[in-house]
């Protein structure tokens, strides 16, 4: 438009000038003929025309140049804005550097990822900002190789790097980089993504899948094995009683009994590891448990090992299986002892912790929330980085053959996970190791019960409805119970038990296996019976607990559980515990006390038997 206007103006000006020139020359010469004056006028007009044309061309050229510059500036601004928008919207951090490593651009996600602000980062050396001191030289070498490599791959490259946050935390990152050339300069553009959490989750998943696979395998076998052991450990006492006046035979029964104990310890570890152990979670005062444990360790460990406790007096109650927790802590303590053959210090610590999702994930705990932490620290040999990943694997042991089965930490791991908790290990070679287990905080607190003697075998005269689907175990339990003075009504499954109840046969306690063949399991049977008779005492037994039962929370409805295989003394103790349990005004049983002593003693007995067994087998 502008161009046409200008040309029209120039043309009109030329016509006016030519007409004026002719008119003036007519007036001056007084004639209309073409003479010198007209020639001069025509030349003057032509000169004006040339001048005008020149002027027009200049104006047009300048105007076109301005327009192009304007357009270029607009385009540059649009593309810069677009780039900023992409950088800002990207989930990943954007870092732009030159060949020397100096930072040219640092997005706000980069600020969040590394802890360094844009202002601090611009112009600084990227390696100094995000690479740990000892790795810087190697990283620079790697970067020098990266530039030519990137230049040869226009599509860019993806690689993993370990970076460090300003606060020293390690960040595992995935980076995608490209190189662009501006004149002689090479500019490196990288998008960086934090994959620390993702990797931790993947590792957890792989670990739990691995554990699950081995668990499936061992769980089923251990279940059957437990039933057999229940018969052996139970009946051997009857035999021992019968041959006590015949020393050679008495020695043999003792050997069988010890072997059965070892078998029981092994299946128990396997079940724990497979997370199929029949757990009976309860509220635990971890300080009390650790104080008792510390006393026992002090009495049993070599004096070269100093034992210290650092207990948080305001620690919450934890929710877990007490017996299993003492075994887990003992396993950790024994590992610590074995790592301090020349002496050292074992420190037991308790504390409250509140986990966010990230922290919970890092220790493999079920969910964000409140946990009770128990740490066992030693000043021993430490664990080499190379084997750190494998220590929880079943049967992984660095101890010499016959010294360790490699099931200790597997048991701890399985137990902690099955309890909904987590575990963390920090170790430095030559300096020592800290294992920290996190257990879920108990939701409520209950009355602390009063004294109870665990060790005396006491029978009774009450009637017990005994439901057990394994014929041999049923027979054995009936003999045991009758031996303790009880009257027994045996039943092979839930249907048979309900039929007995329907007949109106009186009984005082239901003693039932949890996992049973048939349409109803032990828990469902007990629920149905308790619904009809709320004050009914129930004692469960199981060698195996399905996850689905535990998923429902309290697999045993708060009733005690006798873990298979069991001995007469344990059976007698738990029966009296159930039958003598006072009932509060709401009809709920008031819990009886627990002593870590019995568990620890049993554990140490098993260890001693195991050691004896190994010594013998080596001979
Ligand atoms: N506190 C520790 N210090 C140094 N190394 C340890 C520590 N705890 C565990 N380990 C290492 O982890 C391995 C596995 O431990 P784990 O308790 O599972 O088996 P174990 O102690 O060898 O045998 P088991 O406990 O079955 O008798 C050990 O052999 C040892 O190498
Ligand atoms: Mg061990």
Could you provide a short overview of the structure?
The chain is an alpha/beta fold and 619 residues long.
What key attributes describe this structure?
619 residues; alpha/beta; Beta-Lactamase; five-stranded antiparallel sheet; binds adenosine-5'-triphosphate; binds magnesium ion; membrane
Which stretches of 5+ consecutive residues score pLDDT under 50?
A: 445-454, 546-555, 589-596
Task: Give the strand line-up of the largest sheet.
Answer: 2-1-5-4-3
Radius of gyration: 43 Å
Q: Give the overall silhouette.
A: elongated
Distance between the termini: 111 Å
Strand content: 15-25%
Instruction: Report mean pLDDT, rounded to a whole number.
Output: 82
The CATH superfamily of the largest domain turns out to be Histidine kinase-like ATPase, C-terminal domain
Q: Name the structural class.
A: alpha/beta
List how many beta strands DSSP finds: 17
Count of helical regions: 19
What is the domain tally? 4
- What level of helicity do the residues show? 40-55%
Determine the CATH topology of the largest domain: Heat Shock Protein 90
Unique bound compounds: adenosine-5'-triphosphate, magnesium ion
Modified residues (4-aspartylphosphate): 513
Protein name: histidine kinase
Domain Histidine kinase: 220-443
Domain PAS: 79-150
